[in-house]
Each structure stands twice: as structure tokens, then as C-alpha cells.
Design brief:
This is Sulfite exporter TauE/SafE family protein. With about 270 residues, the chain is mainly alpha-helical. The chain has one domain (about 1-274). It has ten helices and two strands. Strands 1-2 form a two-stranded antiparallel sheet. It is globular and about 55 Å long.
Length: about 270
């Protein structure tokens, strides 16, 4: 039974993470903590092992969706590598800070973060892009399958700083970081949405390699559960990437932000009541 549950969690996390560029950790981490706390399906789970195990899954989610997006030529490699220069060190620091969190404090902080992510998803389509970066020092160009060309740009240093914050939250909470990086790329740097999602998944793959390695060193990975989650996450990520190229993800984002708010409220309650 536990293998079916974990496979389903991986499938759902991979599909949602790849579709909207979140990475999927916002599904995996709360699920592992819930099943570890309230059922006997997942044993020996604490904030550190939930995050460490989730980040191992993020490697395969990120790789699977990146390979899928490569076929549609929507991954901006150069930008992804620039952002990784910030997210890599940030993810190591986040993994180190995660060591000091007990279950109550982790639930509280993670719950607040989940609600923040939901609010970002709620308002990101209503915010206007910052036009002043259109002519920034680092310029990029993308032509979509319909032949429309998009031009965008950003100061590399600012990109690295934002990515560092994103990497820190990824290493701390095991969530991948796309929840912050995708809106930043779209609103601040004027990335086309599909390119932002695809590039975010590429960066998540690279960051997850670094941060999961840190958690492996700390002994925070439940390998048996990871092996059960990986197949579902791999298949789900490919499905999410395919759906992303075919339709708008507004409906899913609307459902996701409601789920995140509910999970966030529950985690905050658990964190405050112990």
C-alpha cells in the first residue's frame, strides 16, 4: 500500500511541479510529513529527512522535465547557469540551516512560506512587468513555435542574488524554488512564461544536485521512500511538461494556490500547537 501511495505522490508532484515550474516539493514535503506523523505508511520522518528525500526527487523531476522542454527548445541554458551560480551556494546554506529546525518550528515556517507562495501565484498575473530591465546589460531572445520573437534582459548580478534566495528556500524546505524564480523571471526580467518555467526546471535540476548532496552527507535521505517516489515523479514531470506546451495552466494554478493555503494553515496550526 505504501508503494502505491508514494508512487501517486510522486506522479502528482512531478506533474504539477513541471507544469507550473515549481519543482514539486510543495507536494512531496507536506505529504511525507503528514503520512509520517499521522499514519504508519511512512516511518521515521522528520523535517530533515522529508526535505532531504524531496530534494533527491527534485533531481529526477528537474531532469525529466528539462529533457522534455529541450524538445520544444524553451530552455534558456545561459540564464539557467547564471541563476545556478546563486542558487547552488544558497541551497547549501539552506540545507545547513535546516539542521537546526525541529518539527514545530519547521511546520510554522514552512506553513508561512506555503501561504506566501499561494499569494504570489494569486497576484503574479495582475502585476505588471518591470520594463526598465528590457534593455539591461545581458540580452536574450526567444522565438516560439508560432514564429513570435520575445526579447528580454536582466543584470546578471541581480539574477544571481535572486537565485541565491531561491536556492536558500530550496535547501531549507526542499521545494525546488520555482515558486519564487518563475514569477521573478516573468515579472522582473520579462521572460516569456514557457521559457521561464522550462529554465526554472533546468535550474531546479542543478540546484537539487547540490542541495540533495548536502542532505546526503547529513544522512537526511530515506532511500527506500525515494526509490518509490522517483518513478512517479519522472513520469509526472514529462506529463506536466507536455501539458505546459499545449494549454494555459491557469485552472491548475488556481486549484494549487487554494491547496497551498489550506496546507499552509494546517502546518502553521501544527507548528503553534506542537
Amino acid at each position: 500500500m505504501e508503494w502505491i501511495v508514494l508512487l501517486s505522490i510522486g506522479l502528482l508532484a512531478g506533474a504539477i511541479g513541471s507544469l507550473v515550474g515549481l519543482g514539486g516539493g510543495v507536494i512531496i514535503v507536506p505529504a511525507l510529513i503528514y503520512f509520517g506523523t499521522y499514519t504508519s505508511l511512512v516511518e521515521g520522518m522528520n523535517p530533515q529527512t522529508a526535505v532531504g528525500t524531496s530534494l533527491v526527487i527534485m533531481i529526477f523531476t528537474g531532469l525529466s522535465s528539462t529533457l522534455a522542454y529541450l524538445k520544444h527548445k524553451t530552455v534558456d541554458y545561459k540564464s539557467g547557469l547564471i541563476f545556478f551560480a546563486g542558487s547552488g551556494p544558497g541551497s547549501i546554506l539552506g540545507a545547513w540551516v535546516n539542521k537546526g529546525l525541529n518539527m514545530e518550528s519547521f511546520n510554522l515556517y514552512f506553513g508561512i512560506f506555503m501561504i506566501l507562495v499561494a499569494l504570489i501565484l494569486m497576484i503574479r498575473n495582475k502585476l505588471k512587468p518591470i520594463e526598465k530591465f528590457r534593455n539591461a546589460s545581458f540580452q536574450r531572445e526567444f522565438t516560439d513555435p508560432s514564429g513570435e520573437t520575445f526579447r528580454y534582459g536582466y543584470p546578471p548580478l541581480l539574477g544571481v542574488v535572486i537565485a541565491f534566495v531561491v536556492g536558500f528556500t530550496s535547501g531549507l524546505f526542499g521545494i525546488g524554488g520555482g515558486s519564487l524564480m518563475v514569477p521573478a523571471m516573468i515579472l522582473i526580467f520579462l521572460f516569456p512564461p514557457h521559457v521561464a518555467v522550462a529554465t526554472s526546471m533546468f535550474m531546479i535540476f542543478l540546484s537539487a544536485l547540490v542541495s540533495s548532496g548536502t542532505h546526503v552527507i547529513f544522512g537526511n535521505v530515506k532511500w527506500l521512500y525515494a526509490l518509490a517516489l522517483i518513478p512517479g515523479a519522472w513520469i509526472g514531470a514529462k506529463a506536466g511538461a507536455y501539458i505546459n506546451t499545449k494549454l494555459e495552466s491557469k485552472v491548475l494554478v488556481s486549484v494549487l494556490r487554494i491547496i497551498l493555503i489550506l496546507i499552509g494553515i494546517r502546518l502553521i496550526y501544527q507548528g503553534m500547537t506542537g
